[in-house]
Specification:
A hairpin with a 3-residue loop joins strand 5 and strand 6. The termini are far apart. Helices cover about 40% and strands about 25% of the residues. The chain has 11 helices and 17 strands. The strands form 4 sheets. The protein has a 7-stranded mixed sheet with strand order 1-7-6-5-2-3-4, with helices on both faces. Strands 9-11-12-17-16 form a 5-stranded mixed sheet. It folds into 3 domains: about 180 residues, no CATH class; about 60 residues; about 150 residues, Histidine kinase-like ATPase, C-terminal domain (Heat Shock Protein 90, 2-Layer Sandwich), CATH 3.30.565.
């Protein structure tokens, strides 16, 4: 069987829903599963295409997580969770189960499979061991590393699929039914954009004060060279964080007013930015290589915002790469557009497997839990480039190439006037 759906759909112990929207039922079922995990002890195995499904549940840390993904880009948050009990299984891009939304929980309290498949445009679920074991068999075929094969066998011996308890099934059904009739509470709406604006102000104000105090200390004659070096590091970190939140705030203001576009000399923008990028990369021991023509055409964009967005991209890229990595920056003409491209490669050629996790925080932001760094989400970054007249794409370079990590490409319209 090539998909989980094909393996379990004919089982008499599977409930399949065609009457409701598949994705709508999926989200309801996942919400109910979260409530179940809070109401009873859950310890066992968790197989999924998305490890963030139960991110709001404390039970997540008691589960051995098996994460199946065809993706290799840090921007889309594809690395395993930053906890020791997670295994990541890389799928081929054309693997059929890459198009299935699934979560399979195997615990001593209860076991449950929830599946939404494009193949059937329906959503199914089951508590019974027979379809769950079939689903596990399909997933086991995707694991090829001997160490992971051995680990999964040990874990399945420790947490075997058992016949469901009546209490778990009854509670699942009750919670699912109550969701269908639940009325919305009259909670005042708080727009995410307003919240982001308020947080930006609260973060920037103390950082600006700290930076000002640091600069005053640097001007003192009794500041020793060692202390001055530390103070400069503090000032640079404050500036980076302030600029990061400035960009977030600019993105939040897009809906309020259109961005004015004008003819700008891209070469000037690039020259002003390169020195900053070199400083950022040197602090993280990352090399930047430039492939830029001596003369560049003018483009139509917004100079201030374009510089902020480019700085934000380089900041996210350098923070996501391990020490000793390389970034190639190329600029070239592409028809009616100027193409700016960032290609990344880690020292050992395995950047995709070393990338830090980025968690979604609402629709606007991504959080890197290991460092606490916030950055704009991919959809918002694309929207921001559209607002300043450009286009932004992210893809992976073929692994046979010298640069085998992410490729971030920006297209800006050339001014022919």
């Amino acid at each position: 069987m090539s998909t989980i759906y094909e393996a379990v759909c004919d089982s008499e112990f599977v409930e399949e829903l065609h009457q409701t929207d598949a994705k709508e039922f999926w989200f309801r079922a996942i919400a109910v599963l979260e409530q179940l995990c809070r109401s009873m002890p859950v310890e066992g195995l968790f197989f999924t295409h998305n490890p963030q499904i139960l991110a709001n549940s404390y039970s997540l840390h008691n589960l051995q997580i098996w994460f199946f993904t065809p993706s290799h880009t840090a921007l889309l948050a594809t690395k395993s969770l930053p906890i020791q009990n997670t295994q990541t299984i890389r799928l081929a891009k054309n693997d059929a189960i890459a198009h299935e939304w699934f979560c399979l929980l195997v615990s001593r309290s209860f076991s449950l499979l929830i599946l939404s498949s494009e193949q059937s445009r329906s959503c199914i679920y089951s508590f019974h061991p027979e379809p769950l074991q079939k689903a596990i068999a399909v997933l086991r075929q995707k694991i090829h590393q001997p160490a992971q094969i051995s680990l999964l066998s040990q874990q399945l011996e420790q947490f075997s699929v058992q016949m469901p308890e009546y209490r778990a099934i009854a509670k699942f059904g009750t919670l699912l039914l109550s969701q269908s009739f639940q009325q919305e509470l009259p909670i005042p709406e708080i727009r995410e954009v307003d919240l982001i604006g308020a947080i930006t102000h609260e973060v920037k104000t103390p950082l600006t004060t700290i930076r000002t105090l640091v600069h005053s200390l640097l001007r003192r004659k009794d500041t020793t060279p060692a202390i001055a070096t530390r103070l400069k590091q503090i000032a640079m970190e404050c500036s980076d964080q302030i600029d990061r939140f400035n960009l977030i705030f600019e993105a939040a203001q897009l809906a309020a007013s259109p961005v004015p576009l004008e003819r700008i000399q891209f070469q000037d923008v690039l020259l002003q930015s390169i020195e900053r990028w070199q400083e950022q990369s040197q602090r993280r021991q990352i090399e930047i290589h430039l492939d830029v023509p001596q003369e560049l055409p003018a483009v139509i964009s917004n100079s201030n915002l374009l510089q902020q967005v480019l700085n934000g991209l380089v900041d996210r890229l350098t923070r996501g790469l391990p020490t000793g990595s390389h970034i190639l920056i190329q600029v070239s003409a592409a028809g009616e557009h100027l193409k700016l491209q960032f290609q990344s490669q880690s020292e050992d050629g395995m950047h995709s497997g070393e990338s830090p996790l980025l968690r979604a925080v609402g629709q606007w932001l991504m959080l890197q839990p290991e460092t606490g760094t916030l950055s704009l989400s991919l959809p918002i970054t694309k929207t921001l480039f559209q607002a300043i007249g450009g286009k932004f794409t992210v893809r992976l370079h073929p692994t046979s190439a010298e640069y085998d990590g992410e490729i971030l490409t920006i297209f800006l319209p050339i001014d022919r006037g």
